[in-house]
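Worked Example 4.2. Read the sequence first, then its structure tokens.
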Amino acid sequence: MNKKELYDLALSRLDYDPEIGGFRWRDNYSGNTRKGDVAGSIRNNVWSIGINREVLSSKFLVWYLFNNEILKNNRDICHINGVSGDNRIENLIKRVSYNRSYRIDKCISLKEGRYSFFVAKRFGTLEEAQDFKQKFEEFCRCQNVKV
């Protein structure tokens, strides 16, 4: 079973709950899953759901549900508010790149409707990255743009 088939199977068994940013079981499936129960548990700091002996990340399922796009790497999705368990679609953005050296503390994003962008820049020092973040957030506040 390829990833798309697995995601489609998972979504056929789950209902998205926008209030919790996660999924609930659509029906009773095994001894401990009941209709309406929150699906999954936290494994390695990631909200994960078991389907057909496979473990799927909830944030990837949410992204697939709304964007019909399968992302491969855990770093491909960023939580806007920095809370890894908050998988509401409005809190997820796709990263265009990932840079480990002196990266900004959290994703910086601008949201206008459904459009977002992520600022990816390489900095020489941690101080330069923090200074850029502060100036960028100040600029956004002046422009009345939510960061």
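Now turn to a second chain, presented in exactly the same format:
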Amino acid sequence: MLSIPEEPAKVVPYGTLPLFPLWSRHFTLRVPDHLCYTDSRGRKKMRDSFLVICLTLLVTGSASARTWYITYSGSGDAPTIQAGIDSASAGDTVLVACGTYVESDIAMKSGIVVSSETGEADCVVIDAGWVGHAFNCYGCEETTLIKGFTLTHGNPPFPGWGGAVISLDASAQFINCVFTDNAANKGGGACCQGGSPIFTGCLFSNNLGGDAGALFLDGAAATLTECTFTGNFSMLGGTIWCSNGSPRLMNCTFYANPADAGSQIYCYFEGSPMIENTIIAYSSLGPAVRCEDETNSPTLTCCDLYGNAGDWTGCIEDQSGMNGNFSAEPLFCDPAVGNFRLENCSPCMPGYHPDEYDCGGVIGAFGSGCACGSASAPTSWGAIKAMYQ
């Protein structure tokens, strides 16, 4: 039995006392007379020992969180991913068992985690069935996390903003996700307007877009780290469209992303991305970076631009040879099978920079993966296209 020590004070009658002075308008607690006393100024107070108990109960109660387990058979805690999200509260996790789920326009809720069971993209496929997005993120805060999914067959109706994901004024995090075989007018893989979304360790492949094959960023302070872009096609713009903002790209790899009238990174009105330790290679139908006008000021540091229809050209011409930037074959191990790791002696590996510049680590999304002299590269545009047929 819990024992409350006596304190030398006059006990007041049983009554209602404010639990906390600042919250007294909202929280009151009826306290028995043996747990409260009157101080020297005649004010009713709870004994300190009882107050500690109340604080402990409040903190442990508010910190509780639940995991909602979802299975493709519908036999989990909720029948669908959407139902799990609808049931969850901020701080909860929706954990999805491995399998394929045919769902579209899944509405995310701020402050929850939605993750595949393993946290890896090959565990769960969300097939939007060409009728909408996979995920809709509206106003989600940075505590919102989507991890370990393959998002495919996203194709929203006109005007078609974002193939697999639409993010409006949202700052959700996407980790270890694959965006593949999606289509949209603006952003074949995803479209982000406003907010500060984060993409970490994600792959954008084989997406089709009007203004952006993979990712459309408008007014979004996005951060992309260790992401890979390959086989995305854009009719205009580029693989990434950047306008009205300065997204940051760190340790990313761009490989063979054609654009009929664009580039791998396209800068539109006041779009000024910061690109660091990134490889942009083999875009034979467009330059590595293109600026629409003088309002664009992309900044590149420790970047390797090679084999594009224009490497250090146009608005970034004067950055070649500066701040660790260069143009050299990156020596991917086997890009024909999606292996973008580097030869041990690649110029993108630490210690092998052609200008002996210290870039603080590897350039690109991956480190070494094969011995010197073992790398391979497509010899023609036809060979590159064959990778995605």
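Notes for the reader: Residues 15-62 form one domain. The longest strand covers residues 212-218.
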